[in-house]
Amino acid sequence: MLAVAMWEKIEGIERRYEELAQEMARPEVAADFQRLQTLAKEHASLESIVSLYREYKRVDAALAEAQSLADEGSDPEMAAMARDEVAQLAQQRERLEEEARLALLPKDPYGQRPVIIEIRAAAGGDEAGLFAGELFRMYSRYAERHGWPVEVMSSHPSDVGGFKEIICEVRGRGAYSRLKYEGGAHRVQRIPVTEASGRIHTSTATVAVLPEADEVDLKIGEDDLRIDVFRAGGHGGQNVNKLSTAIRITHIPSGITAVCQDERSQLKNKLKALTVLRARLLDVEQKRQHQEIGDARRAQVGSGERSEKVRTYNFPQDRVTDHRVGLTVHNLPAILDGELDDIIDVLATEEQAKRLQETPA
Question: Could you read off the pLDDT of 41-58 as tens digits, one per residue?
C-alpha cells in the first residue's frame, strides 16, 4: 500500500489540476494567449497521474462494495461471485498503486533531450577500432528505427576501416531517456579477420552518452572560449589540407575542448564543436550538482581496459550479455543492426525498481 503522505501528494495534484481547469476557463485568461499556454502545459503534465488516481478511486470503491457482498454471505452463489470479483479488483488496485508510485518518481530533466554519443576505440588496437565502427552503426540503426536523425559531429577513422573516435548527435524526443543506458565500456569477443591461428580476441570500445545542452542550461562567456582554426588532416579527399576549416574550441576555465573537422565549412565545424563542448560542460555541471552519483562520465567510460565492461558481444556464441542486470540474449546480428529495445527495457525497469526502493513506501 502507498503511504498516506503519497496519497495526500496525489490528492494535492488533483486539486491543482482542477484549479488549473477553472483558471483556464476564466475569460481574462482565455484572452491572454501566453498565460493560457503556460497553464495548459502544466494542466497537460498532470493529466496522466490524475486519470490514474481517479481510476484507482473507482476500483477501490468497487472493491469495497464487492467485499461487502462477499462478507454478507446470505446468497452463497452471489457471495462466490463477489469473492472472484474481490480477487480481480484487488489485483487491479495493486497494479494501479504501483503505477502511481512510478508516476511520482522525479522525472529526468534531460530525458527528452537529443544526445551526443562519443564512441572511442580502447584496448585491442585495430580490432577495437572496427568494433567502434560497428557500435556507431548499431546506434545509427537504432535511431533510424525510432525516426531520430543522426549527424556525425567529429570522426577520426582508423587505418583499417573503423574509428579511433567518432562523435555523433542523435536528435529526437526521448533520445536521452533511452540511450543513456548505453554509456560504459563495451567488450567484443571474436576471431579477427587478421588472426591466422583462429584465436578469439577480446577488444573494447568506450561509449559516453551526454544530453545536449540548451543555452539556458549554462552560460558561457565569449572570453571563456579560445577558438583555434587549423587544416583538417586524415581521410577526407583532395581538398582536406588546402583550407583551414577545422575548429578546436577550448573552454579556458575548465580546459575542456571540442574539435570538429568533418565539414568543409568553418562555420559548420564551429557550430558542431560548440554543440559538443556544451554537452561536455553540462555533463561536468551535472556531476558537480549530483556528487552522490559520482563522476558520471568517467563511470560510463572507465579506463577502457578489457576487465571493465557493461556489455559483452560474444560472436562465437552468438550472444550479448549486459553485466549490469545479468541479462543474456542471442541473435547478435540483430542487436548490432539496432534491435536494442529489449535490452534497454530491462535496464530502464531495473532503474525504476532501484528508485522505488529508495522512495519511502
Answer: 889 888 888 999 999 999
